[in-house]
Known about the structure:
The protein is 73% helix and 7% strand. With 140 residues, the chain is mainly α. The chain has one domain (2-139). Strands 1-2 form a two-stranded antiparallel sheet. Helix 1 (2-31) packs antiparallel against helix 2 (36-50) and helix 4 (73-101) runs antiparallel to helix 5 (108-122).
Amino acid sequence: MLALLGNIIWFVFGGFFLGIGWWVFGILMYVFIITIPWAKACFVIGQFCFLPFGKEVISRKKLTGGGDIGTGALGLIGNIVWVIFAGIWLCIGHAIFGILCFCTIIGIPFGIQHFKIAGACFAPIGMQVVDKKVAKEAKK
C-alpha cells in the first residue's frame, strides 16, 4: 500500500515528466540507427522512472538464468560507451536531486528513489525492471 501511495505522489510530482523525458530520448535514439541499443536502455530507465516504488532493476541474466546480447561482452562495451557519454552525467544529476530530497524528512523516500534511478542510469544495457519480489527470487 505504501508503494502505491509513493508511486502516486512520485508520478504526480515529477515521475511522469521524468519518464516521458527518457522515452522521448529513446525515440530520438531509434531515429539514429547506431544508437538503438541505448534507446532500449532509455525505455528501461523511463519505465523505472514512472513508478519506481516497489520496483527494482536487475540484470536480465539473473532474471532469465541465461545470457543475451545485452548481458554479454557487447552489453559491457555498450555500458562503457553509455557511461562516458551519458550515464555519468545522468547519475550525477539524480544523485544531486537525491541529496536535495534528503533535506526534508518527507523527501527521504523520494531521495532513495533518485539514488536507485542513478544506479540504473550508470549501466542500463542488459537490465530489466521487475517487482521487488521477482528480483528477490532471481537473486537466490
